[in-house]
Amino acid sequence: MTTKKNNPVLKWEKAGWVFLLIFATSDLFSISIAQTAVVGMGITWIGRWVKSGESPDLSPVKWPLAAFVVSSLIAAIFSLNPVESFRDSKDLLQIIIFFSAYDLFSRDIKRIGTVFRVMTATGAGIAVFGLFQAFNRGLDINDRISGFNDIYMTYAGLLMLAIIVGAAVLLFEFKKWADSWIPVALGLMVAAVLLSLTRNALVGIVAGSVVMVALRKPVALAAIPALMAIAIAVTPRIASDRVYSIFDLQNETNKERIYLWSAGLKIIRDNPLFGVGQNSFPIVYPKYRNPNVKEPNISHLHNNFMEIAAERGLVGLFCWMSVWVFALWIMIRSWRQNRRDKKADILGTPAGIGGITAFVCAGVFEYNFGDSEIQMFYYFILAGGMASVKSCLSCAEESFSSTGGGKARMEG
Fold this sequence. Notes:
Blueprint: H1 8-26, H2 31-52, H3 62-77, H4 82-88, H5 96-107, H6 111-137, H7 152-172, H8 182-195, H9 199-216, H10 224-233, H11 237-244, H12 252-270, H13 281-288, H14 304-338, H15 348-362, H16 372-402, H17 407-411
């Protein structure tokens, strides 16, 4: 007789949680540790699946994800450089994060809050490190703070998503004394993003926060402009000028973006169906490069939609967009149905909605989907959101069953 202690299925599950927690912390500062944890998550997920003999629940998002994988591989086949495109397609394996994390969260939905708090604390830690960098070497647009990451874009993008999960805890599961540190952590992370001078991350933070505040208490949206004004007012001049430059069409960087996107549209026009292939943009860009562009070496289009359309075609773009559009539709519908149910574990749903919003809005100005650490974080938040949807469905079914099917209760 197999006891609970010796249950091999349970052992696989426990090992999966260990790797999930390692990933939740390490993705913010070490891609090598994070990717090792992802391998562990995948192996333990498959191991539990095989040992249990159960068919895994892959969530409704499995179909758009599958379509995106297939369209990406087809684009690689027709690529200008198939070898390089297939090599770059290894990032598709990161989707395992979604499936393995979704499976674990679905089995113990209450752990989402714990994991999100861990990620918030880790985010605060790397924010402090970045602030020390800013203090020691000052602020320079050509030498921006990057924490433990190789580049400021990754650093700010990861902090953006860490802010979203921390804000979700603050808005939807705040425990007065135990979570008193979270507002401080959020303040440190916002300060670090401001001092990183990374505009796309700021756009994502504002967009994701606005959406989550609207879900929690729409009237509180009135306070957001005042908070933004205060944050900008207390930052150094170089940081506040960087924020204002978002709206300046004459800004040199903005003009460069417009030239770049114009070239991207021409590439898409000439290669509409399957694009030029993953990581093949640098091959064709010189042909379309605007002579007014000052930056000679550009590896991507600084825009998720254009980059995916250029490299994977309009088919790939449609499949990629269907992932988050479908997920948003499911999560928003679940939120509307379950937001007042005190028994439902809903934290992952607003975090998922806010996370996708932040990721997509920031991605209008940067190819953040091409950043492995941010892409992995995105799949992780998406897993939490979809697991909360499943939890709410299970809760509703149990409630319905306990009432004898509703009708029987009324007849009684």
